[in-house]
Amino acid sequence: MSKIDESLLTNLPPFRHLERAQIREILDLSSVRRYDEGTAVFTEGMEADRFYLLLDGYIRVIRTSPSGEHIIAMHIAAGQLFGIAPAIGRDTYPATATAAMETIALSWPVRLWHDFVANYEGFASETYKIVGQRMQNLHEQVLELATQAVEQRLASALLRMANQSGRKVENGIEIAFPVTRQNISDMTGTTLHTVSRLLSAWQKQGIVESTRRHIVVTRPHDLMLLSTSSAQ
């Protein structure tokens, strides 16, 4: 691929305090790679030998439960670091990162992590903010699984994806990456049958439009009410 321009990183949180010359140094140490949809960038438990910056696309983060079930923990949008195992004191990846659509990412050898933290202003503080935000999001999802009814969990998951990646279209807010009903089942800890039943009902009510791999939230306010309603 052609040489990456520094302007792509200047406004991203881990790099926005740096001079263009410093960003050029960082880019010259990186590798860039394109991943097809469904390709694993790395897998849970694998030695963390590189850390990554997502330039384009979306990353789906998947954890494996003790019983072997795959749980979608989050989606990561372009402009964010991922695979940052050193930031949480690990030498293996805590989850699998899979391209949710065609994706382009930069990566660096993990041996450079401490050099970046020490030598580039704002890199450490902004990275640890990212870690904190993700931990908070995971905490909220655990609470949802423990306390919310299935309908609330599903509505919350759709809102989270729409807020994170949504793009305005004529009939509402479209989730920007392909998402299947099985994906949603894996996010919400419910069955594929239940997800299909609820999405079909909400489509009839005009709250969402759902195809095999794409979802448009047509009435976000109604979906928000569903996410906060008490279990019946």
Q: How do the strands and helices of this protein lay out in sequence?
A:
Elements lengths: L19 H9 L2 E5 L4 E3 L7 E7 L1 E7 L5 E8 L3 E2 L13 E4 L3 E7 L3 H7 L3 H25 L2 H16 L1 E3 L2 E3 L6 H8 L3 H13 L3 E3 L4 E3 L2 H9 L4
Antiparallel strand pairs: 1-8, 2-7, 3-6, 3-8, 4-5, 4-7, 9-10, 10-12, 11-12
Helix pairs in contact: 4-5, 4-7, 5-6
Summarize the structure.
The chain is an alpha+beta fold and 232 residues long.
**CATH H level of the largest domain: which superfamily?**
Jelly Rolls
The chain-level structural class is alpha+beta
What is the fold-level CATH name, i.e. the topology of the largest domain? Jelly Rolls
Low-confidence stretches: none
**Oligomeric assembly:** single chain
Mean pLDDT: 89
The gross shape turns out to be: globular
Number of distinct helices: 7
Order of helices and strands: HEEEEEEEEHHHEEHHEEH
Sequence of strands across the biggest β-sheet: 1-8-3-6
Q: End-to-end distance, in Å?
A: 54 Å
**Radius of gyration computed on alpha carbons:** 19 Å
- Classify the helix fraction into a percent range: 25-40%
What's the CATH first level of the largest domain? Mainly Beta
Strand content: 15-25%
Topology, number of strands: 12
